[in-house]
Fold this sequence. Notes:
Chain A has 451 residues and is mostly helical. In chain A, 67% of the residues lie in helices and 5% in strands. In chain B, 32% of the residues lie in helices and 13% in strands.
Amino acid sequence: MIRRTIGFVDSRSGAAPFLTKALRYLFPDHWSFLLGEVALYAFIVLVATGVYLTLYFEPSLGETVYHGSYAPLRGMEMSEAYRSVVDISFDVRAGLLIRQTHHWAANVFVAAVVLHLLRIFFTGAFRKPREGTYLVGLLMLMVTLPEGYLGYSMVDDLLSGMGLAIGYAVAESVPFVGGNLALLLWGGPYPGHAAFESRMYITHVFILPVLIATLIALHLTLVASRHHTQFRRTRRQSERKLLGVPMFPGQAPRSLGLMSCVAAVLFLLGGLVQINPIWQWGPYDVAQSTNGAQPDWYLGWLIGALRLVPGFDLKIGDYTLVPNPFWGGALFPLLVFVVLGAYPWVERRISGDRSYHNALDRPRDAPGRTAFGAAFLAWVLVVFFAGSMDRAVVAFGLSYAAQVWIYRAALVVLPPLIFFVVRRICRELQRSEQVEQEQHRAEAEARAARA
Amino acid sequence: MRRLLAALLLWLAGGRRKRREAEEERERIVAPAPKAPAAELVVVGLLFCAAAAAVAFIVFYAIDGLRGHTQWFGLAFGGSLGFLGAALIVWSKKLVPVEEIEENYPEPEHPEEQEALHRIVRESGSPVTRKGLLTAAATAAGGALGLAALTPAVSLGPVFDTSSLYGTPWRRGRRLVDQDGKPLRVDDIAEATFYTAYPEGASQDTVGAPLVVVRIPAGEMALPADRVDWAVEGIVAYSKICTHAACAVSLYRKPLFPPTAPRPALVCPCHYSTFDPARAGKVLFGPAGRALPQLPLRADRRGFLRAAGNFSGPVGPSWSGVRTKGARS
């Protein structure tokens, strides 16, 4: 049976040599190499649940009155979009499971991508010949953020409307073209043309997912063509020699097991842990907003930046050149991505190391990179946590105004401090390793001399 | 029935293995591994559990009026996937030959192919005599075609005319109404709370429409000299849309505890821009770059609140290029 299937496939496609190679493709073994796979499998869950959701979601701002089974909203005027998502939550069987799983999967997807990026960064996996793979991955993260934002924005509940208002203000704040850009995207002054809903919808369910899928394909092709990086765990591994488990039968059940477990966790979260209960927020209205609103976690750094920037518009007389939201909402994320994107070339410039690298560094092996990475991460994390200043007021009774100044100070003080501390730790770890090695050598020599 | 059971037992005991083993006596590609019948049974058990949980999902789905159905759906479907994952992981740990194989990394570069590619490109272009001119022409064609392809996107919105961003539905004489269209009277407005008002007979769903209306206690009002007559008996009105990022200014901080609390302020809950309603909407705190636009008010003879003109400046967040004086009707 197996032989006949193989014969059929090979004679029609000529794929046998390729498949033989593919089945014996080697995967080096380390737990941290699974982070990228977690992201991939969360993406698969996103596509699967997302397809179900499109069958019920109505991307329309047309006015309607709610008559569904959720009593508190009955008789309320709302958009078709919001009504259809309330219906998915209450009147479509298993609809809430699928919706919540979709939302959880989005949060986990971005988290896995970010952790994967950190792993790549701190082990130097981005070095030649893998800069392209790294850039494609970074681009994917950049596409993922608007993809998630649009997903919860097109629901047209109160929170999504508040998020869109901020997005509109950031679009308007782009120097010189901001007003034109916002009018183009929204189709008119905020809240925009009714067609804006369809624009969000097609972008969320088609344009960006196809882009992400294409980037994933490119990413994996590049990974496979250069093969995986590896840690030097044994003497058999080197820059030229790869040691790993073959795709089949070693890696396949392991990876499929991971896929099932990721999906299991996402569906358990979707069924048991409530996320974004939109029926509690109510429909959006430009004249309404609510206190204590927070975006999904992966946009927390942007709300933090918007809150930390001092209150000024850059004006020339009566003419506003750069409105305030630009600094935190556009320039800050752009700067972060530019720094990350340029880093492989900057490091090569500084270290002068232009050779090929297949073996990974441990963080301590490259103290400069690790220290810079930790400092940069701390810088972004300070802004990220500043996004929850209003929650800290409620939880710990800290004054909001005082927190603003503490965070601004931390932005200046913390990164250099962390840079020097981390670099020192890395160097000490290296030194203690040298001492240990010398000790072992001396003991071995002593033993040899006695014998 | 008994013969069927016997066959099943034989199958479970691995009776068909003999023939296959004979085949595998030849030189192997995959490393050999010891048999692990116990692990095999664990995998079988887990797979049956996965099947049972999946069936449970279908059963739950079919039950009408199941209490806590979302939780049961999640438990059953997630549980099924969890069992499947566990089965695959036990499989990978116990039933897969341990193979760690060495292999050389692919050659990073292919100098011969690089040279060949270079020659193919160069030699293919040998008939060309005016390289610069051709490049310029091709760039012109490609660029113009790309521009033409993008042109229809201009229809997405009034991209070249930003004047609509200044527009508001307010004009002299327009009455202030509440969300349901009921006109607001001077007597309706109490101190220490705020009201949302809209222009009578206009859409409420634009950033130019909503107002926040408050009554400032006597003696606390400090409007600039040119706006002293914009208030009616201490009542002032401002655009409800924050000048920072377009959220609705929907918090009114009023001094509940006079000795310690600061004076009344309008606060936007998105980034906590804070405006002073007694001082022409001046920014007290937060990232907003300019004051809340104020709407001049007057009362008619019957005590209804009316606009006495348009806002003091453009409503909503600033855009690049906005001139901050004057809104247009």
